[in-house]
């Protein structure tokens, strides 16, 4: 039976230049492959070793990119290996099948959001009214599903983020701070629900997942086995669970390690327990 691998992308498998964490001497730095270009500039990278591992994984399992990115943002990425048949975008709001939105899935998600949490417009208005222009660079609404701010992180008041989280919690929303972005996302909008749908469609009997942020926690808990890198919100909170392995690697080398772990779990007889 197929193995399903649902992995977050940003700061899990792919990394911006600011997130690479190349702490080794320059001469020992890994060779990098650019996997995303935006406005004619290289934006996201993985190591060449990770690219090879992902190609191998794409041949060995049902690999499902699983991201909070919008469909447009996701489609900028050019991952190595076979083109994934399924992709999860907008934190589970869109399930792509051969690159096309599954409209029935999207309608199910919208119905659930309408029934279980405060409307997007209420949250968007609160962000507009309470966020200080001194540290906000952009206000964004993603796919008419959730909202986020792009901020100057060093100017961002920690107390404001905590107050936002409490306000959102009382309205059925959750808050996640990732780099320079603050996300406000409806609680029913989850990567895990979309992963379960793909597992059902593919008949997968083993599900593997990885992610670094609070928005990935539900995905990791829903999988049979999960991994988180040594950086990100989950690491900062020392978050773990019985089926989760907390990896020590940080930055782009964590992406390599995660792909190694995926391959080892998917095909233990091929890669063995000492695969590093």
Could you walk me through the main structural features you see in this protein, from its secondary elements to its overall organization?
The protein has helices at residues 48-60, 71-74, 103-116, 120-130, 158-169, 191-202, 217-222, 233-236, 252-266, 268-271; strands spanning 3-7, 32-38, 41-47, 62-65, 86-89, 94-97, 100-101, 136-142, 146-151, 173-178, 181-186, 206-210, 225-228, 244-246. Strand 8 and strand 9 form a beta hairpin. The mean pLDDT is 95. The chain contains 10 helices and 14 strands. The chain is α/β, with parallel strands linked by helices. The longest helix has 15 residues, at 252-266. The protein starts with a strand and ends in a 5-residue tail after the last helix. It has a 5-stranded parallel β-sheet, with helices on both faces. It has a 4-stranded antiparallel β-sheet with strand order 8-9-11-10. The chain has a 3-stranded antiparallel β-sheet with strand order 5-6-7, with helices on one face.
